[in-house]
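Quick check before the chapter quiz. The format below is the same one you will see on the exam, so make sure you can read both the input and the output lines.
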Amino acid sequence: MNRKKNRQNTRNSKQVSQSKSKRSTKNVLGVHSSQGQVRVIGGDWRGRKLPVLVSEGLRPTSDRVRETIFNWFQFDVPGARCLDLFAGTGALGLEALSRGAAFVQFVEFSPKVAIQLEQNLHTLNVSGERVNMLQADALDWLEQPIAKAFDLVFLDPPFHKDFLPSILQKLFENGYVDSKSILYLEQEKSQELPCLPAGWEIQKEKTTSQVRYGYFVCKASD
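Here is the expected output.
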């Protein structure tokens, strides 16, 4: 009788162990293969959902904020040359392409995130003349002067890294923006929007529970 009971207990122990093992494996796989989605909210790809990696620090601009941004820029995006710096999921640059931007330069530091964005661009079958995807450190990339300024620059750096002073300095010094450019900025709500060179003024600004965002134009160009 004791032997029978011992055998039963052994079988029960094995079943519990196997069950825990399966749950553990499932959790590990879930972490490594986890993906989210970003949805294009307007233009040619309206409603299109694209996979994005779930990664620490990766913060796609929300649908609601993007809707506000592209309402602001509805007449500026068609035909524009855009820079999506710190691209991440590429939500801003993809939205611009969908709405008729002539060209978008994406710059993303993380190799895995950059690969996913490149795959999404391939899925959308975007012509090579309209897009360039670069995996690089944005601060290093901005060291090189550029021949022609971008019409619209999307600037959404990682939060709590204090990158903005250096980024803005390089953007202006090396010709990435000029007096006809529009500079969009997204940052922590707790931080005041930065001061830009003389003539540059905040045109519109909004906040959410966590984010402060707005765009600057150069009034000297009017």
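If your answer matched, good. The two ends are 96 Å apart (CA to CA).
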